[in-house]
Design brief:
Dihydrodipicolinate Reductase, domain 2; alpha/beta; 2 domains; about 270 residues; 8-stranded mixed β-sheet; 7 helices; elongated; 5-stranded mixed β-sheet; binds nicotinamide-adenine-dinucleotide; about 30% helix
Length: about 270
């Protein structure tokens, strides 16, 4: 069978380089082109092989000459938003890992996918363990009234709480149907010196060199606690999710947000 042809947008970035490596070694898929701001050369070497593929800052030109099935994007929201209509016009499916989109950005992705009959998978976290942590936390949320989250990331991460911590907390509250309970001393207060409060869940954000992305959700009730924890040691952790999305997006027209549907996780 013909391999799935992939173009990587943001190919010189930390995630883009990991995607080039992962797709390059995955049977049944192939990197056919790469795009980034200022490529030093007009071809990019694929690690672990002798292959070189066209590399340019001109997305339109790369898509015209390589005709990929899927474009994987790890760049910046503004760069993704500019790339979206170009890729859609070429009928290219998209796997988007860039974070920081607004609701209006997601609406536009959905509109483009419908108009050009393509598939778009956008996920703020491609680490399958983190997606499962969020799912298990939604299940546990129904049974506990108290919960806190500790998220630990590398010192270059500027936003806090992390997008994953926010999504976890919001998912837990939605599943529960009402806010969690704060400790008695903090009830009625909108802010806490201990962390960011999201509907009764205090989120503690740690930023230190040495971490990649880690999160623990701790539930408490009289006489017992339940801890659900996910740790990563390098960016390879995101690649099984990216590879899954590249295969799945071909069968999934329209916009899919998050990996839950790809993993057949029912709404908890
Ligand atoms: P990075 O800064 O190392 O890489 C971004 C790359 O995009 C750079 O090479 C940059 O030159 C390129 N770029 C910027 N503007 C461009 C444009 N107009 N055209 C083409 N290329 C352009 O960042 P990173 O650590 O690789 O992260 C990239 C994005 O992925 C961020 O939004 C980050 O939050 C997100 N991320 C998502 C996940 C996930 O699981 N979804 C995991 C890690 C990082």
């Amino acid at each position: 069978m013909k391999p799935i042809a992939v173009v990587v947008h943001g190919a010189s970035g930390k995630m883009g380089q990991e995607v080039v490596k992962a797709v390059g070694r995955e049977p049944g898929m192939q990197v056919v082109g790469a795009v980034d701001m200022k490529p030093a050369e007009d071809t990019l070497a694929i690690p672990g092989s002798s292959a070189r593929v066209p590399f340019s800052s001109d997305l339109d030109q790369i898509l015209s000459c390589t005709k990929p099935d899927v474009m994987v994007d790890f760049s910046l929201p503004a760069a993704t938003n500019a790339a979206l209509p170009v890729a859609a016009r070429h009928g290219v499916n998209m796997v988007i890992g860039t974070t920081g989109f607004t609701a209006a950005d997601l609406d536009e992705m959905s509109r483009l996918a419908q108009q050009y009959k393509t598939g778009i998978v956008v996920a703020a976290n491609f680490a399958l363990g983190a997606v499962l942590l969020m799912h298990f936390s939604k299940i546990a949320a129904k049974y506990f009234d108290f919960a806190e989250i500790i998220e630990l990331h590398h010192d270059q991460k500027i936003d806090f709480p992390s997008g994953t911590a926010l999504a976890t907390a919001r998912g837990m509250v939605k599943s529960k149907g009402h806010p969690f309970c704060l400790p008695a001393a903090e009830q009625g207060k909108t802010a806490s010196g201990r962390g960011t409060q999201i509907d009764g869940i205090t989120v503690h954000s740690v930023r230190l060199p040495g971490f990649v992305a880690n999160q623990e959700v701790i539930f408490g009730m009289a006489g017992q606690t339940l801890r659900i924890k996910h740790d990563t040691i390098n960016r390879e952790c995101f690649m099984p999710g990216v590879v899954l999305a590249i295969k799945d997006v071909l069968k999934r027209p329209g916009l899919t947000v998050g990996l839950e549907a790809l993993l057949n996780l029912q709404e908890a």
